[in-house]
Amino acid sequence: MQKILTVLFVTLAACNRAAVPPEQDDADSKSGSVVAPTQDSEWKAIEAIEAEAKTIAKASGCASADVCRAAPVGSRACGGPRYYIPYCSVTTDSAALSNKLEEVAKAEQAYNRKYNLASTCEMRLPPPLESAGGSCVAK
User: Fold this and answer.
1) DSSP 6-42
2) Can you tell me the distance from the alpha carbon of 44 to that of 96, in angstroms, rounded to the nearest whole number?
3) How many other CB atoms are there within 10 angstroms of residue 43's CB atom?
4) So where are the chain's domains?
5) How far apart are CA 76 and CA 109, in angstroms?
6) Which residues of the chain form beta strands (DSSP E)?
7) Which of 2, 32, 46, 59 has its CA 20 to 30 A from that of 77?
8) How far apart are CA 87 and CA 75, in angstroms?
9) pLDDT (tens digit, 9 = 90+) per residue, 15-48?
10) Max CA-CA distance within the chain?
11) How far, in whole angstroms, is CA 118 from its chain's centroid?
C-alpha cells in the first residue's frame, strides 16, 4: 500500500510542476518573470537600428550636389520606404549604410506582418538634393 501511495505522490508532484516557457532565458527563470516583447518595444528596437544608420550617413563633406545621394529608410506596410536620408557619398561608407538600412527595412517588414499593419500606398521618390554649406540636403 505504501508503495502505491509513493508512486501516486510522485506522479502528482510531477504533474504539478510548472513548465518553463521556451522563450525564457536563465536569468528570467531564476527571477520567475517572463518579459515578452511588446509592439512598442519592438518599434523602439527598429528605431535603434535606424539611429545607427543615421550615424553612418554623413551629410557633410560635399562641395557639390553631384556627389550627394538619398538612401531609402524603412519599409511601409504597403511597400516602399518611409523617407529618404540624404548623405554625401564622399564621406559616407555607402556599403555600411546600405547594409544597416537593409536591416531596418527587414525588421520593419517583419514588424508590419506581425502586427498586421496597413499604410498609405503612394509612391515616395527620393528627394532632389543640393549641397548647402558643404552638406547634402533635400531641396
Assistant:
1) HHHHHHHHHHHPPPPPTT--HHHHHHT------HHHH
2) 21
3) 14
4) 40-138
5) 7
6) 68-73, 83-88, 129-132, 135-138
7) 59
8) 19
9) 333 333 334 444 444 566 788 999 999 999 999 9
10) 93
11) 17
The partner residues of 69 in beta bridges, in order of sequence, read 87
pTM of the model: 0.74
Alpha-carbon distance of 115 to 102, in angstroms, equals 20
Of 42, 11, 61, whose CA–CA distance to 117 is shortest?
Answer: 42
Question: How far apart are the C-alpha atoms of 65 and 99, rounded to whole Å?
Answer: 23
CA 86 to CA 29: how far, in whole Å?
45
Backbone angles phi, psi at 73, to 5 degrees: -120, 125
Three-class SS state of 136: strand
- pLDDT tens-place string over residues 76-107: 999 999 999 999 999 999 999 999 999 999 99
Amino acid of residue 6:
T
